[in-house]
Specification:
Shape: globular
Largest sheet: none
Order of helices and strands: HHHHHHHHHH
Structural class: mainly alpha
Number of domains: 1
Oligomer: single chain
Length: 230
């Protein structure tokens, strides 16, 4: 069946992409490399969507959503962001005696906050939702029931992030995003949840890095960089 072939192709393509990205980032991180990798991710996502343009476009229609569910989509990622940020930080310190901060990598970029915001808060929510809750969800619906589709998309979503510890929260997070996609047949709520979650985590990382770490050589330039990027 065509949908099965597309799901397999999607899974293999994005798993290979995740593996290649992981090893490239392990070697070194530069703005050019990140731009190229993010560009490839966007092109792969859009390329797969061409196989289901009608189904994907239908997910961007404006639907009537109860205010309680909209409120949930705003408050839920606030809870997940804080819980995940401090929970993963505690776990990293427990297992590896050190935490991770995204600005370890982004400090070398001019306008570091702006680039981090673009990659983490714009590209990820828009194109990850399009890829996993859009194209992949649509294809799996043709060959599986709703529960299997939600679970499978959440699992693949977690798997391609290529982080064993992150699976602990990305998988249940993906389940909620999948449910919202199914319940309202739209990507908008998922993108809102994803955006707010990533934004809060980014802001917490920014505060932790520049609020508690003494980076004297960067103190003035980074402050200006933050102001200009807003």
């Amino acid at each position: 069946m065509r949908s099965v072939q597309l799901v397999i192709a999607f899974y293999i393509t994005f798993l290979v992409y995740a593996m290649v990205s992981y090893f490239i980032y392990e070697e070194s991180v530069t703005l050019l490399k990140e731009l190229l990798l993010e560009g490839v991710f966007v092109l792969l996502t859009v390329g797969f969507c061409f196989f289901d343009l009608k189904g994907v476009f239908s997910l961007y229609r404006i639907h009537t959503i109860h205010w309680r569910n909209l409120l949930f989509s705003i408050l839920f990622p606030v809870f997940t962001a804080v819980a995940v940020y401090y929970g993963m930080d505690w776990l990293d310190n427990l297992l590896f005696d050190e935490g991770y901060n995204i600005f370890y990598d982004y400090i070398q970029y001019d306008h570091s906050f702006l680039w981090a915001f673009i990659f983490i808060c714009i590209v990820a929510p828009v194109f990850e939702e399009l890829a996993f809750r859009g194209f992949l969800f649509n294809q799996l619906k043709h060959v599986a029931n709703t529960n299997v589709t939600i679970i499978a998309t959440a699992f693949i979503f977690a798997l391609v992030h290529f982080s064993l510890l992150s699976i602990l929260w990305i998988f249940p997070f993906g389940l909620v995003l999948g449910y919202l996609r199914h319940r309202y047949n739209t990507l908008w709520l998922g993108m809102i949840v994803h955006f707010i979650h990533n934004l809060i985590v980014l802001l917490l990382d920014y505060y932790a890095f520049f609020g508690f770490w003494e980076v004297e050589d960067y103190s003035i330039s980074v402050s200006l960089d933050f102001i200009y990027s807003l």
